[in-house]
Amino acid sequence: MSTAINPETLNFLSTLEINNNREWFNENKQLYLEAKANFENVVNEIIAEVAEFDESVERLEAKNCIFRIYKDTRFSKDKTPYKTNIGASLVEKGPKTLNHAGYYIHLENGKSFLAGGVYMTEPKNLKAIREAISSDGEKFMKILNKKSFKDVLELQGTQLVKVPQGFDKENPMADYLKFKQFTVFHPLSDKEVLDKNFVKNTVKVLKEIYPFNRFLNEAIGK
Q: Which Pfam family is an annotated match for this chain, by its short name (predicted)?
């Protein structure tokens, strides 16, 4: 039987949102540790199942993929010390890589989601992705237009006003070449997060993301 997200995990995040201060957090740190452990167990199950179709994640461990709850407030106007979400990045070279496409799982009351692709990457990699889209637009569109993909995922990312330098503005893929990030997004309701089949349902969505990630990673190269 799959591990599920405990209601207490979302309850902790909700309560932290109201009590985002060090005194409350220190007094209730055990609740955080329990929420983190629950999420870690779920993510480890997800990794194991995703590895069956994407071997790039098979060496990952959830404990190394989950982001810290402590915020870096040095350059932020919001000085609350803790994130009110918990997330994990499943990327071949680890959660901090800026180079490769991967999967992201985000839990937050009323704002949970699954995502894939590349949010930030080096300029040379972004250029390589655009070149792949320009030269093999048919393959890229086949991925985006697959019904099972379109039913659960939406392409997102900020876009340039003009086609980037070095690409023909009349290119049939021009609208996609303007993207600065190549990410796909699947929103989750709290009910879906707490579903007993959360692992199974999540893996189903991530499996749809896999061809998109593979296209991006093949463009970037190893």
A: DUF2461
